[in-house]
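Researcher: Please generate the 3D structure of the following complex. Treat every line as part of one assembly.
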Amino acid sequence: MRRKSRSTKAKGISAAAHLDHPFAPQRIFSDDRIGDMHDLALKVLEDLGMKVLLPEAVEVFAVAGARIVDDMVFIGRDMVAGALASAPRQVLMAAPNRARDQMIAEGRLLFSPGGGCPNVSDRIKGRRAGDLASYRDALRLMQSYDVIHKLAPAPEPQDVPTHLRHYAMVKSQLELSDKPLTIYGRGRAQVMQSFEMIQMALELSDDAFAGASWCSTVVNTNSPRLLDRPMAQALIDFARAGQLSIVTPFCLAGAMAPITIAGALVLQHAEALAAITLTQLARPGAPVLYGGFGSNVDMKSGAPAFGTPAHIQMSIGSGQLARHIGLPWRSAAGAASNTNDMQAAGETHMSLWGAMMGNANLVFHTAGWLEGGLTFGFEKFINDIEALQTLSQLCIAPDDSDDALGFEAISEVKPGGHFFETKQTMARYRTAFAAPLLADLSNFGSWSAEGSVPSDVRATEVWQGVFRDYRAPDACSDRASRIARFIADGTAKGGAVIES
Amino acid sequence: MRRKSRSTKAKGISAAAHLDHPFAPQRIFSDDRIGDMHDLALKVLEDLGMKVLLPEAVEVFAVAGARIVDDMVFIGRDMVAGALASAPRQVLMAAPNRARDQMIAEGRLLFSPGGGCPNVSDRIKGRRAGDLASYRDALRLMQSYDVIHKLAPAPEPQDVPTHLRHYAMVKSQLELSDKPLTIYGRGRAQVMQSFEMIQMALELSDDAFAGASWCSTVVNTNSPRLLDRPMAQALIDFARAGQLSIVTPFCLAGAMAPITIAGALVLQHAEALAAITLTQLARPGAPVLYGGFGSNVDMKSGAPAFGTPAHIQMSIGSGQLARHIGLPWRSAAGAASNTNDMQAAGETHMSLWGAMMGNANLVFHTAGWLEGGLTFGFEKFINDIEALQTLSQLCIAPDDSDDALGFEAISEVKPGGHFFETKQTMARYRTAFAAPLLADLSNFGSWSAEGSVPSDVRATEVWQGVFRDYRAPDACSDRASRIARFIADGTAKGGAVIES
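Model: Done. Output below.
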């Protein structure tokens, strides 16, 4: 049975801002077999090892007693067990607006919008390379719906030089939004400067900054069994700063992972355990999420597929593995479609439900993804928000009071009559059902008379309205202004080159 | 944990033809409150009563001891309890091709396509009134995908006079398909002639016909608390013939039912229990399904909405009530959208998942519905089949053998490599993942070069291919030919007028 939704007392923030899963987590493998998969992942790490490209990370493993052969790290099961013992069961993801803080833990449900997209598209300007203007527009969209629980880096502001991009992205997030921040793990210099900007903008003491995760980053392993330099660096740097690494092997069954669901999960699990272990060696107790983004490729073309049975099963199996090791975890929705069509909606809906069935605690790419993440689409974003709002409303248990059971209302209405005027309806009609964001419920005649407008065109009107009316939360400009000097100085000194 | 899918041994019929629910049923109310809702529904029937417009049905209740005041029938809880004791826990829905028989019981999952649509639409001929040609085309579509488990009456062949329509519809079903048949409950004459045609076409003895449900009908109550003449007649006639009534109050919260989920469910439950009781009084042990089709109306416009939180919650609550009384049950998906857009896909996906969460045993309107059922759309049908095939594949537990866990495959591939050539991949790639029916997984460049074709246009190509290649199962023409004389004679005698 669903738990009652947490109430959000902050003015102007709806119940959608803090969600608990309404459904019990599902299983696709027996608990015994999940145990076997965990053991097999340990064997992968012990016997086959991980290739780690960052010497500093290899050294961390070596100091802890791992067997090292060149850049191959063989991680013993005791070391993994130690890491799992120190990794926190819950992580406080703090927001500039503390009313938007999120405790990530078993049972919690958070949605992150589409991230990592190099391109942007909308029906007015078409598909194009992401730029700072479209990134800032996307931030406005992300801020405008409470069901989006953190910011994501998309579309990529490609018109900003890479050595200065972290300035523009941190500043834009602070200036336009008060939700939890995201930064890229693109090398120590950018990460450290980003930490510094956040601490400065939010006026945090060193202890306060280290006491919660004020930003998060996604760490993708390069499946199979490879951890590259910037990702390993991010794991270490975020851990030492007490900031959140979201560990995410991207295991596409049949391509970078075994073709079976079980095999792809074993590989994912091994890689996630390796990354989690590195965080805990860097700083025991460091915040970290278990994660997986698993689906399949089409075996004819090699193209990644989303919303497929394999995608859903990978989400459910990942949830089982996460609960096996007792950590909160992230999953991902996704869509391969190239446009705002039924395919796009279907893929995202299916993969969202996969995350629901797996009880993912933080679901990525829930709004705006097209082309397997190559494009952030504004119309798609609006359409996906409708789906997320539907799911968020399922998190609230329906009224089961005596009045709700409705005998009195039923007795008021004669056979064949209607309930529009019962006392119960009159008392509840304003708030009984949330108005749809995008769905047009008019009949065919009215809809045709109004120009037969399909949902993608209506979605354009919705995002245009968001931009027209957009007003950043009050405190934003103050926060952003506190880092203006830092950015000017840093820019003058040449910024911070990204590492790859 | 999901059960293993039943194997289907018949040649040419895939595993999608027989499904068991992969997920545990969910709850939105406590078991105690479900018990209270059941009691309250009994109180509705005892104290408020049902209006029953068919004197024969009133008489059936009267003979059994119900209190009658004019056309109001007050049904005591003992009478309901007796009906629930005799109603079967499982129902054999027999098909002309016995390999397509379906046992409807707890845990089973069946999909019925969109039904009851007066109109039809496709991208070539546009939206128009349903006719016999489009009904026959829809039957070809329904027959072509194993994940559709029974036939549905849509679009309505409005060009056939109503007194002859049952001839055309039964003949078309037999001629084009070998799946379980549906007939309308539009009066005793049409129903009895339809039974006779089916028995004749399938060469069934009287005992054989009475021994399974060779056809089914949907019985909608006229919520609130009204049972009209043809529906009451169908309940009696189907029960006495051992054929299946699918009892379905259509309770739209806020309109024909209380505005609360709990209240709408209490009304639905009362009406369903009244109808089930009538079947059991007509013939104890008669096949009958509990059912509900519940959603909400938009409180601004009064328009029915689908795929909403209320729709999903009604499905889950209905499942709880069905399990409370121990009967298998039907639910419904649905979409309000007027066209093949993201809204349409989203609504159907959401409501399908509601049926999954409620563990509905037979889900109606799963493919082709648009405009809240006013139109059967061919492109929408194809798109929905993709969703149903995805769900059907989730019913098959993933391989959890040692080979599937993949340690050997993982050890074959060096860090950063790929799995395309592992022994495991080579052995499995042909069958590992079902090819999508409609999804285009090509990248944006290829997709654009091919004309930027969206999913609704591709869906047209799919259904055109179905019609081009369609060949009815071998035995169909023999079955249909057996009733040619009966139809000719019946037509000469003036057919059978429908009752309303």
